[in-house]
Amino acid sequence: MYNYKKPAKPWGDQMIKVSVLGATGYTGQELVRLLYQHAEVKIVGLGTQNYVGQSFANVYPHFRGIIDIVCRSVDDEYLFDEADVVFLALPHGLSVPYVVKAINNGKKVVDLGADFRLKNQEVYEHWYKKTAPPADILAQAIYGLPEINRTIINNAVLLSNPGCYPTTAILGLAPLLHNKLVDIKDIIIDSKSGISGAGRSLSLGSMFSEAGNNFKAYGFPHHRHTPEIEQEISAIAGQEIKVSFTPHLLPMIRGMLSTIYIRPSAGTQYKHVLEAYETMYKKEPFVRVMPTGEFPNTKWVLGTNFCDIGLSWDERAEKIIIVSAIDNLVKGASGQAVQNMNIMFGLEESTGLKHIAVYP
Amino acid sequence: MYNYKKPAKPWGDQMIKVSVLGATGYTGQELVRLLYQHAEVKIVGLGTQNYVGQSFANVYPHFRGIIDIVCRSVDDEYLFDEADVVFLALPHGLSVPYVVKAINNGKKVVDLGADFRLKNQEVYEHWYKKTAPPADILAQAIYGLPEINRTIINNAVLLSNPGCYPTTAILGLAPLLHNKLVDIKDIIIDSKSGISGAGRSLSLGSMFSEAGNNFKAYGFPHHRHTPEIEQEISAIAGQEIKVSFTPHLLPMIRGMLSTIYIRPSAGTQYKHVLEAYETMYKKEPFVRVMPTGEFPNTKWVLGTNFCDIGLSWDERAEKIIIVSAIDNLVKGASGQAVQNMNIMFGLEESTGLKHIAVYP
Amino acid sequence: MYNYKKPAKPWGDQMIKVSVLGATGYTGQELVRLLYQHAEVKIVGLGTQNYVGQSFANVYPHFRGIIDIVCRSVDDEYLFDEADVVFLALPHGLSVPYVVKAINNGKKVVDLGADFRLKNQEVYEHWYKKTAPPADILAQAIYGLPEINRTIINNAVLLSNPGCYPTTAILGLAPLLHNKLVDIKDIIIDSKSGISGAGRSLSLGSMFSEAGNNFKAYGFPHHRHTPEIEQEISAIAGQEIKVSFTPHLLPMIRGMLSTIYIRPSAGTQYKHVLEAYETMYKKEPFVRVMPTGEFPNTKWVLGTNFCDIGLSWDERAEKIIIVSAIDNLVKGASGQAVQNMNIMFGLEESTGLKHIAVYP
Amino acid sequence: MYNYKKPAKPWGDQMIKVSVLGATGYTGQELVRLLYQHAEVKIVGLGTQNYVGQSFANVYPHFRGIIDIVCRSVDDEYLFDEADVVFLALPHGLSVPYVVKAINNGKKVVDLGADFRLKNQEVYEHWYKKTAPPADILAQAIYGLPEINRTIINNAVLLSNPGCYPTTAILGLAPLLHNKLVDIKDIIIDSKSGISGAGRSLSLGSMFSEAGNNFKAYGFPHHRHTPEIEQEISAIAGQEIKVSFTPHLLPMIRGMLSTIYIRPSAGTQYKHVLEAYETMYKKEPFVRVMPTGEFPNTKWVLGTNFCDIGLSWDERAEKIIIVSAIDNLVKGASGQAVQNMNIMFGLEESTGLKHIAVYP
């Protein structure tokens, strides 16, 4: 099925033409923000389910005076014909036909949904209660967490963009697991997310009067990001791992922070831990390991593609505690998608992603 | 030293006369709200360090038209002479002389500070970096968490009111530990608090522009509430327990929620867990165990003395997950202090504490 | 049509039996909070459109352990048969049949909706785009702002509870207009409201991610509260007044504040202004006029039935500036409804309404 | 005194070297964000009063991995020697000596403080209770609101950057006053600001627990921005105008919105109003006039240099209502300062200022 042909001219000499399907959701409009400001990208079209024929800047007036594009149907062939790469920011379970269409047209795809994240069809169907994608297409999908597997992203045609919670968990745990510094049992991942992660669909729980001035845990112990985390960290560790993952909802719009508890292996010292993070992340453009004694604030990464990581050693309780923070809509979704696109097209990885947090 | 004499007339036939030292801090003014509305209490005086001679309603204008009291110095003898019970809502480390004065005057004391919470002087000095209270006074102090030890609160003269984080942790863990349903190793307590817990003192971290729209972990792995939690749950379990405790700061004013992870003992089934909570808390006026599948929202307890508890069994990861929520200034401080006073004076325990959350 | 019979026993010797229709909306559940805590009231039933047959404490879990009532249909006769007074907290335009049924059953009604606020049918139909209530029923409706017209509330059978914005505007302006201290032209009412005023219905604008971290004006210059304000202040002034009224939406749940600009009449001095407010409000239990130089904070009235008023004289621009603040769900809705009920049943007016703001 | 020499090479061929004094305040660090991302600018140094010798990225960790500069004293000569232009983001009243030093060194200055905004020394001293700057220096200061007076900004050596409230008021009123469409009496400016406008200095009113979940008016009727607004709109109108200006504090960090009420002149029709805004602003890169019936949301301009303006005609009350919104730290401070710098150095005016709001 795969028939993608790398263009004769190396990317970088010409603009990458992109279209976004699902542009009027929160991750979709965030993609538009990032792609519009990207020096090597030209947005050729925006697809939507609910706002066909409307000006994008009417749906999101913060784009007034900046972007003048009328939204098309997600089924509009134009979005596939004119683009070099199609971004899918659709609700879970809808991606397959668009992926097929894009690949058959020789286009690349970056899918921000969950449909291609789980490599095992049975696991997908168990957790998502939907039919898994066909095996031949699923086999082409590359899970795209650049800090972990950028070498295989390079040639991806179908890129499956990680979930937000898994991004914090995997980046937080990778140096420990890769270096076998910890006991893989009893890993606890206690995560907290801003409300924008629930998307723009109307729901009582997302109302200001309900979510405001409130904090709660939700969706556990069977949140769908659990198998995604386990799949990826098991691959890093080289053995099957089960985690306890509990998400919570913060009374703020953007921002995600995971606090991870794990027992050090016998013989592991704190200096080994520090070295592991230093070694793995020192050249990463988007991972910032905090100095000992300092811990991430979600607002330090707001609007940026950074993942900030803080480390602590609780010698009394024999635990390593890792705190990792991202903007759930950037490194947790659209920013990471652009980072993956940069790799797929041979661009410098941080192109278009050098935002500084708007503070305070 | 102890010379408290129970009044000839049983309490309940007359108003309890109270004074509050440290009335102009957040927990102090919350005490004033609760005590003012308490049918069996008369506030005889308010002591302050910084607002001596000012009208209390000037310091806190939400009391205008309600309370007309001029603040006295915390050293004013009147506050000890006129009261049956003295509430101390002072910064940590200042309580001893006031406790001595009150007890010598034959008065009861409810201390909302930390000075008398730790029974071991060395532990106190290690964690608080202050001189511990003299052993003879410390020996008189009763740690007052009514759901756990109300029988000894009854006769307390010096009542040490629990910390906010420990209240969530101990109430969350007690049924499991009391019934020996869990492994006491690897207990993780991941707590999140509103900012009012930091008090009214000026600090950069408590500024709206810094704490707003933000989430972070802080003060771990050596937060001072750790030994208090360990002391109390070790007593319940009958063996020494160490926990990993990590507090976080929420972008909201009031509300506290702890997510607690613990491994079930071999043989423990979820029904045993449910029974343990049902049995221990079914008659408690202030503990509400949620139905299976539901979890606390901090705003359901806002302004109230409730502790809401939700339970989950993560069979994949072999963990019991307990979520407990309180209002940090009520059940976590001033409301619990009033509950303790009610017990100490023979009143029905929920007198003056039947608030319903102001929702949404 | 009127056939209400005052009970043989004066109220106060027995509990007032109440039912609430629309109990599962925000103003409805706030009524339940206030009525449940009211010493002279017994709630006999709760009516709802969407949650028939469900436990009220399931819909609003902050009532768990407090209220154990199963919601009935708003059309359930029981709600009319068993109650002495029926509270209507329904969407606008639905009240008439329930009012008719209640009155025909000899019951009193407190309607928190807008249907009976405007005395002129044409004005109602112009602003609300709905058919006005029949003239004979409308004629029975008493607009219930106790500080202005409590003498006629006394005998009301059908009490029309004021809107939230009008409450701030009328209480803010009454002393000036009553004493003819101001020019009635060019009155500007710039109002700001928390989001709970929009109710519990799902809408994009009420989502946390949209309303949070945002501020905007809306619904002007033709907001429906305009004719209500004009009707009432014209009556006070004895001449027809038109105002410019602009509402705004605050990123918070509860709280409302109006800033009112008005030109003093020739000869008016600031001391006359102060005297006017002092005279009109000094005995009012729920109006607090701030000392000169101080201005209301919405959180000082949160959860309470207070209306706080601050005054300023801008001699440079020749304007009197009045700032009035309420909790939109209490003095702006449910608290005022209870205040009106107290008057209608001969109770002390502040019964059940002596809440102190939960601060900070 | 003036001895600024335009460099031989036209700006644009080389990087503009800038230093920022007061870089560790909120407007200072926002300047750093904008200047760092500016393609034609090189930051040569950062001056601070309180963090001398500390890494800037330590003071503001969201700059970690981005900026590696150690803060200097504001008195460090290096900041004046190495820069082409010095930005002053100091507390009010401190600018004069730094302005003198910079100008004497042949450097340009952009002062974000208030010291040079008022052209009349007596007016300054009356409102600010400080000694006004010397007349000869004051005479050189150019008030820099580009949309109003960009032609004279061109050659400015000492640029006085407007206040945040005045920016909203002047841009909101200019088309009406310039075209003489309105009565200049009875102008009401009701403004609402996020809390970051109060800066980073510790104060009780800026604490999260005090400012959060709250709304209030403050500082009127004598707020210091009043004479600045009057000075500038009087110049536009060609006659002396007095306004009534009332600021309020919103429970959010960034964002400012002013609602302005003004009476149309006899003969003015709404189409004249629309034409006036269209004509004045259609080519402006940073002013967006909303379509009729739509009004600004502060979050649409968050982090950007836009001023969004909405218009309404209240024919019943004979008022034009203008709503203007900015980010107080961008168009209200640091963004406008960069816009002014761009003009002063002959760059395209929007260089480095093409941010899109981070939404939602």
Structure description:
The structure is a homotetramer of 360-residue chains. With 360 residues, chain A is of the alpha/beta class. Chain A contains twelve helices and 14 strands. Chain A has helices at 26-36, 56-59, 78-81, 95-104, 121-128, 135-140, 146-153, 164-178, 208-211, 225-237, 270-281, 330-344; strands at residues 16-21, 41-48, 72-73, 85-88, 108-111, 141-143, 158-160, 187-193, 216-217, 243-249, 256-262, 287-289, 307-314, 319-326. In chain A, strand 13 (307-314) and strand 14 (319-326) form a beta hairpin. The longest helix of chain A is centred in the middle third of the chain and has 15 residues, at 164-178. The termini of chain A are far apart. Chains in contact: A-B, A-C, A-D, B-C, B-D, C-D. Chains B and C meet through helix 1 of B and helix 1 of C.
Task: Give a quick set of tags describing it.
2 domains; Dihydrodipicolinate Reductase, domain 2; 360 residues; 12 helices; disordered N terminus; seven-stranded mixed sheet
SSE order and pairing:
Four copies of one chain form a homotetramer.
Chain A: E1 16-21, H1 26-36, E2 41-48, H2 56-59, E3 72-73, H3 78-81, E4 85-88, H4 95-104, E5 108-111, H5 121-128, H6 135-140, E6 141-143, H7 146-153, E7 158-160, H8 164-178, E8 187-193, H9 208-211, E9 216-217, H10 225-237, E10 243-249, E11 256-262, H11 270-281, E12 287-289, E13 307-314, E14 319-326, H12 330-344
Parallel strand pairs in A: 1-2, 1-4, 2-3, 4-5, 5-7, 6-7, 8-10, 12-13
Antiparallel strand pairs in A: 8-11, 9-10, 11-14, 13-14
Helix tally of chain A equals: 12
Dominant shape of chain A: globular
Average pLDDT of chain A: 95
Strand ordering within the main sheet of chain A: 3-2-1-4-5-7-6
Q: What fraction of the residues of chain A are assigned to beta strands by DSSP?
A: 15-25%
CATH architectural grouping of the largest domain in chain A: 2-Layer Sandwich
The profile of the biggest β sheet of chain A is: 7 strands, parallel
CATH topology of the largest domain in chain A: Dihydrodipicolinate Reductase, domain 2
Topology of chain A as a string of helices (H) and strands (E): EHEHEHEHEHHEHEHEHEHEEHEEEH
The number of domains of chain A: 2
Oligomer: homotetramer
Biggest interface pair, residues each?
Answer: C-D, 48 and 49 residues
Give the CA-CA distance, first to last residue of chain A: 50 Å
Topology, number of strands of chain A: 14
The CATH homology group name of the largest domain in chain A = Dihydrodipicolinate Reductase, domain 2
Low-confidence stretches of chain A: 1-10
